[in-house]
Amino acid sequence: MNLPAVSPLMPSDAAVDTPSPLRPPLPAGAGERLLWGRLYGAAGALAIASAAQQVERPILAAVADMPAAATLREELAFFLRGSADAHEDIPVLTFPDWETLPYDVFSPLPELVSERLLTLHRLPGLTRGVLVVPVGTLLQRLPPRAFVDGHALVLAVGDRLDLDATRTRLTRSGYQCVSQVIAHGEFAVRGALLDVFPMGSQLPLRIDLFDDEVESIRTFDPDSQRSLEKLNRVRMLPAREYPTDEAAISAFRQRWRAAIDADPKASLIYREVSEGRMPGGIEYYLPLFFDQTATLFDYLPDSTLAFEHADVRNAADDVLGRIEERYEQRRHDPERPLLPPRDLYLSRDDLAARLNARAGVVWQSPEVPDRRKGYGALHNFATAQPPPLAIHPRAESPAAELQGFLETPGRGTPFIA
């Protein structure tokens, strides 16, 4: 992994109270928002990692897009792995995007849905860690917490298990009954064996019953179907971000007729869902499965600090603009009449209100010239961009410039031992 270089300023270059990324200032009161500037290269990630070590509360780190999220996750993992508090578990969590275009006719990969549901399940009980999210994903409306919690199944060796009732429950949670389990969201019943590939699990599970008692739980290889590790307790999450039972389908049909001014029988989506089949792109009709949707903010503990990169709100405008364009292009198809963007995404004002309601930080690479209205203290850090350091492949020592820079007292990267 190539981390961008960060150079600390010499003592003569920095004011006495200029903060270091190793001990960043943090908001003290509820709703206080700080401004962090002069965090070049990976210094922003170093400051966030240091903050995660200082506080015993979760941190939401919102960035402009998916590449920025991937970079920040890698940098945070690097800094936290090498920290003095490495004996403590400070996880770096992800909440992946669906990786489909707005109003697409394709559904996200089951692996992505699995990771999303696992994160949603973990967040309410999170006491420490960093959740990195691109703003486009942060804008999405999600299933309510009651759905994720209510469709989770905890099972332990020795428990009683009604196989017929479990089959029904798995089906209602969106699992598909198959002859052989190979992918997330599938289950199979063979005599006294229940094979299931839970969402959020790396491997499928084989549950062996003796009468109605769970005799053993093992993971197994989906390719060879051979049993592997023995487990004492497992937790299974719903297979989808929406329910698929008869009650949910009936509610979907009612909400469709109330929300969409079009002939329902002319719509492929309405017909397919009415028959119990979930067509590609059904995720963009999520609000029709619930009385009320949630957002990622509703899953975060109240103590969560909200960090955002300075580009986030402009990036939100760009994302919402592209969503509106896709909506205008596709909303006239009678087979796929669409819900308006406001039903599926937060507005920019909603996003700002939810971020501003939490204590947190806005950070950026350049120096912040002056304090902005509505924000608390301004802190420009003791870091600077390194000089140009060329690599000369034909020279006797190709990296001489870089080596000399690192060996200069008071210079070099603050994370190099």
Short description:
The protein has 417 residues and is of the alpha/beta class. The chain has helices at residues 43-54, 66-81, 110-122, 135-138, 145-150, 163-172, 246-259, 268-274, 296-299, 312-330, 341-344, 348-356, 400-407, and strands at 7-8, 33-37, 58-63, 92-94, 129-134, 153-156, 176-177, 186-190, 193-196, 205-210, 213-220, 227-231, 233-236, 305-309, 360-363, 378-380, 383-384. Strand 8 and strand 9 form a beta hairpin.
Q: How would you sum up this structure, described in words?
A:
The chain is globular and about 70 Å long. A seven-stranded parallel β-sheet has the order 4-5-3-14-15-2-16. Residues 1-16 and 413-417 have low confidence and may be disordered. The chain has 13 helices and 17 strands. The longest helix is centred in the C-terminal third of the chain and has 19 residues, at 312-330. The chain is of the alpha/beta class and 417 residues long.
Sheet having the most strands: 7 strands, parallel
Low-confidence stretches: 1-16, 413-417
Give the helix/strand class.
Answer: alpha/beta
Q: Report the oligomer.
A: single chain
Overall average pLDDT: 87
Rg, please?
25 Å
State the total count of DSSP E strands: 17
Features:
single chain, 417 residues, alpha/beta, seven-stranded parallel beta sheet, six-stranded mixed beta sheet, 18% strand, disordered C terminus
